Amino acid sequence: MGRRHLREGKKMQNGLKHILDKSVEKLAQVLSSSSLPETRKGIEYLKNRLMGLMPNILLDPIYIGLFGSTGAGKSTLLNAIIDKNFFLPVSGYKACTSCMVQVNMSHSKTYEAKIHLLTDEEWKEELKSLMVFMDPDEEESDSERNEAVLKISTIYGEEAANKSYEELCEMKPLIRIPDSRCITLRDKNEKDFSEKMSPYIWIQSIRSDTKAGTGEEDSRTGEEDSRTREEDSRTRFWPLIKNVKVTIPRLQMVPENVVFVDIPGTGDFSSKRDAMWKENINKCSIIWVVNSIERIHGGKVHEMMLNEGMKAFQCGICRDISLVVTKSDQMNLKEYKRESKKDYMNKHDAILDRNETVKQEKSKMMRRNLAKKKKKKKKKKKKKRKKLPSDSEVLHKEDLVYTVSAQEYWDGETLSKEETEIPKLREYIQRFYIAQKRNKLMDYVEEALVIFSLIQSLRSNQNPQYQHAKEIHLRALIMKKIDELEADIEKCFLPIEQPLSEGVEQAKKMYKKSMDKILHREHGYRGYHRTLKAVCLNMGVYASRIFCRIDINDSLAQPIYEKIDMAFGNIFRTQMGTRSTLKANFNIFRDAMQQQLQEDVMKDPVSDIKDKLKFLQQETDFIIRETEKVILQKKAEIYQSLTVSIQTQLLPHYEEAARQRGAKVCKRIQTILSEGIKKASEEGMFERAQESMKRHFHDLKVEMIKKMKNYFSDMLSFVFFPWDQLNHKLPDLQNESLFIHNLHENLHSDRSA
């Protein structure tokens, strides 16, 4: 069924493209014979609008983010989804993916990987953070210090561990780094390609531990030794690797231009890689929060990942989120029988029974954590505000949780392929992809319909004086409606002001407690002062291998986010609801405009005026869609304005703390940050963050209204331009217009079916 829909979609798209090509060619012929500047400008506008509708819709990527902590089984899951066992490197006992990996498909039969490296400036920036862990005055060692030593010595050699930052910047790397800062691998053989690619992705400690555990170094043949040396030279790039983009031949089970992104759960301590981490989360249409079955019971990691994923709902383009529980075949049968008191069950039935229980429990957890809480008379415990309105689509979809087993997908010892739920995930991808592409095609067809209607109406222009009067009337009417929309948008933003103020008061009360959790640790304190210094060097943000992700700015802003998340989500939600949403206000504006224009159509005696009014009715949809693109672009900036403001205000304190060295350095860093944040809070840090967010909302409103006024003004000038100067030379596009009408009807009937 999915393949059939894809073929039909491609056929419709090709038909649309053919008609648009023919129409552009006809307009170009008219353009070549026109000399009047205004006429040429108008025809050029029409031609460019049609050309802008011709990108390959099916080639627009849809990103699916596999989001989870290291060792959750993301790479193993992805290998099963694309039906390529051991294609991406996996380990049976440790996390093994060292960087962000993106996998997409193409028509080529060749496998390709582009390994993108940090630029020289980006590497030097990371080197500053690494040097924090290389203090020569300290002898204590920990895994982060060891990793810093390993990174530096990998690039510059063993003796580099004792060098200063300035000396390292002058040293020549042991490896030749390509000027393009990109390494490209290609191979037609899947296995050979995987072996070439793996050294660039695999975490170095895994490789070292594997070799040490097997005595591999003592038993190599000469050929193996040569191959190992070649691999070792490739692994020397790992500290510089920013991300890896893998392209594989197209698959039958996954639509082309679905792009999978393996996203580490806590970001990266390279500021550039950490920025890419945020960017990749925000561009995903679907997020799978991935965690293994052994971690899902009692563990809170998946809930933390879910909270991170939900931020993409607030500030990205994410339309769907699911919890994917991996390794669901793993079970101690005797233990399960004893706990469940179901002695009669065999392993197959016990696994399915346990998995169904996990689905029900975790689906409830997700709905409970994400849906709007109901008010209770008795307030026993203070709960966090939830992220989404209770009628959000994601909360009512059939499957919020998937329990998958890649191992059983390949081996089939206990579960069938269907029972592993790998095929179920693929089916979901197909459905989502087809729906998104069909909606996109419908948007293009509707826009084409608008333009062809306009061209038909422009072929006759009667009674110029009446048309000019009509233009003045419509301009006044539309500008009045836009002014009313502006007032409604201001009202739409009002509900966030109270929770924003409440959040600021809460943040002022909570900042000491929030900072105490970051600055003072009850256990695992060894080497923490170096981590704190790295946090300060990176303006309050650091993804530590030991202490996970530390983000002072976000922690300080968290009480505000907890207060505003519901109101913020309501403003930007895409479902129809109350007038508190931007979309609802735009829809009300559109309906009022179209109704007014329809009334004018009914009253107007002039036929070509009727056509122009009908065009303006349809064009209103296009203008609103263009304005909504502005909203999507600005939404993340607005949401993140709180943390950005806090980070900017704390920058002098971060810089001072980062300069600290010598005895009792940890205590001094803690004091500088504690006192600095206290002083900033007393001087209005949180209030300024509040004002920053309000200013961003105001700027969004101004930009939207300005864009709409400019769009409608230009459109009116264009529609009522005296086209009779062309002497009826506009091309006849009746057949093309009929084709677009039929295509629109077909798409509309398919959507309704």
**What is the global morphology?**
globular
Regions with pLDDT < 50 over 5+ consecutive residues?
Answer: 205-220, 373-385
Distance between the termini: 14 Å
Give the beta-strand count. 11
- Count the helices. How many? 26
Can you describe this structure?
- Helix 1 runs parallel beside helix 17 (422-458).
- The strands form two sheets. The chain has a nine-stranded mixed sheet with strand order 4-3-5-2-6-1-7-8-9, sandwiched between helices.
- It contains 26 helices and eleven strands.
- Strand 10 and strand 11 (548-551) form a beta hairpin.
- The longest helix is centred in the C-terminal third of the chain and has 52 residues, at 607-658.
- The model is unreliable at 205-220 and 373-385 (pLDDT under 50).
- It has helices at residues 2-32, 37-51, 74-81, 120-132, 143-156, 165-170, 190-201, 204-214, 222-235, 271-282, 293-296, 301-315, 333-340, 347-370, 393-396, 406-411, 422-458, 464-493, 497-519, 528-537, 552-572, 582-603, 607-658, 665-682, 685-719, 734-752, and strands at residues 62-68, 100-106, 111-117, 182-187, 241-249, 258-264, 286-292, 320-326, 401-403, 541-544, 548-551.
- The chain has 753 residues and is α/β, with parallel strands linked by helices.
